[in-house]
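Notes on consecutive records. When two proteins share a document, each keeps its own sequence and its own token line. Never mix them. Below: protein one.
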Amino acid sequence: MSIFEAVAEPAAPEPGPQAGAAVSTSAVAEPDRRLVRVSAFLFGIVLAVVVVLGGAWFATGGRFFIMTTPSMSPVLPVGSLVLTRPFDASKVKVGTIIAFVEPVAPYHVYTHRVVGVTPLGYRTRGDVEIDADRWVVPQANVKGIAVQAVPGLGYLVRSLPWLIVGLLFALALAAWTPWRWAVFMPLIAAVVVVVVPILRFRPLVNAMYAFRYGVAPDEKARVVNTGLLPLAFHITGQTGSTYVPAGHWTDLPIPTLPHKFAAHITAHVSLGIVGWCILGLVCASPLLVGIAVTWREWHVERRELASSVA
């Protein structure tokens, strides 16, 4: 080997990464998607349990109905899922709650309390109402006897088609989106999935004017809190407000006003400091989860990148 060849021969590379070499971070930056797989697995288990239990209930003759009116508040508030057993005339008495179809218009199912038993059938009345229903329910029109009710679960049942499709879409986003969007994109989709039924069915904050009764100056209006949060009702022009828990009703005195004026009733959410804090945390939970997971993945990426360079 000549001196010229020795000078031209490249020096042996030193240990460590070569200068100018690009360090791939794709394997380092890829987040752990076990959370997505576990979520999908748990979602499938819950869905399977619901299907099995629902099928077993129907197989034994049970049915369920969703309360869409406040006629039976507070026992069966709006949004309750009412479970019924097959009709048995020997178990129906005054005070029993039955599900039936109206004799005149048999396309709508009512769930009212029996207030009288006659040879022709049953006299019924909603707990919110003052007067009994205008009809007598024949035994052939009774669909079942109410045995259990779960407040608020009816809202979830009505939202199930949208929730199932939306949650599957959110899981697909979490599994297939690039890692830098694999947290926020599914969270945004999940928020949309939850918000749409809330805007459609208004389960949290809602109220309904039932009727008014009496004569001035003792005339009253019966209002019902049909949401899942407590409300405070206020009559314009009067001081103070009336607290009404979720699913309950109250009678408000209507002030005597000139004929051209009307009494306006307003309602607002009535929560204490603890309640507002809990509600705020629930609303902010998607953002907090996104920040926490992103912060964790960022630290994992930096640690793995540092170890690969070293």
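Protein two starts on the next line and is unrelated to protein one.
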Amino acid sequence: MDQHVLVVDDDDGVRGLIQHTLNRAGYRVTSLASGAKVKNTLTAGNVDLVVIDLGLPDTDGLTLTRQIREHFPVGIIVVSDRGETTERMIGLEIDADEYLPKPFEPRELVARVKSVLRRKERQHETTPVGDRLPIFHFNNWKLDCSARSLFGPTGAWVSLTSGEYKLLEALVARANRVLSRDQLLDLASTNDAHAFDRSIDVRIGRLRKKLDDDSKNPEVIKTVRNGGYIFVAKVERD
């Protein structure tokens, strides 16, 4: 394998274990004990995947992970001893591909790494090189999939997190189809999230707010009791 994994963990023992485990599995590994050089390493190092601890000594791991997701096309596995459900929910909302609580089995880490890298490769292979992705229009809104951007009725750009964008794209591309939470989790690439599928409800709530869709009487994204969600606005595609 020639895939490059960046490991960010301030615990020397854990960082060494991860590096040794992944080296033996055939991966090239760069390891850092803090967040200070992460962005420079990602810019210069052709990194395919980041394994990152949330409890870094010099920066907030959640904020750094969110920045990585927004600016670098890499896989992300959060490895942390913060095992509470709220932390896992936050990890999903910042769009980590996997969440692996400490302590963990080395074989499980390798399996997660392989899984994330395979998904990334499939995504790359199914995106036509040079082809423009669709632009969707609904209720005077525009979702440009090439630019991964949402524009409101006045033409103003609307900020979306990566997770919000992927969820909206999944809904718009499958308008008038009921999608379960599990389907949406899969389509939005938030693997390892089946035990925390209420995170979809959180994202739906944020999307409704940004789309000015009344949560009590939605006209864009409707809730289907015991079913999931359906995008009911009329969609046109360029």
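For the record: The mean pLDDT is 84.
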